[in-house]
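thread: overnight batch results

M.L. [08:02]
morning all. the overnight job finished for the chain we discussed friday. pasting input first so we're all looking at the same thing
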Amino acid sequence: MSYATPETTEAPLQTAATLGFTDLCDSCGAQAYVRVTLESGELLFCGHHASKHRETLGSSIIAWHDETDRLRSDHSS
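M.L. [08:03]
and the structure it wrote out:
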């Protein structure tokens, strides 16, 4: 199974590690699909909380690594 390249605002030479089953949302504890890098550190969010907090974090976001496409991948052939 292959996934599309995740959305990221990081420079091309930087590669963010894929989020795994041990990466949990800092808001609710669900599976994390978004890693947000801030000057003060990283936050992990599920798709719901990433959408909820993106505007609030605004200009403090250094990088936004989004793997929510994995939730919508088409498994039919």
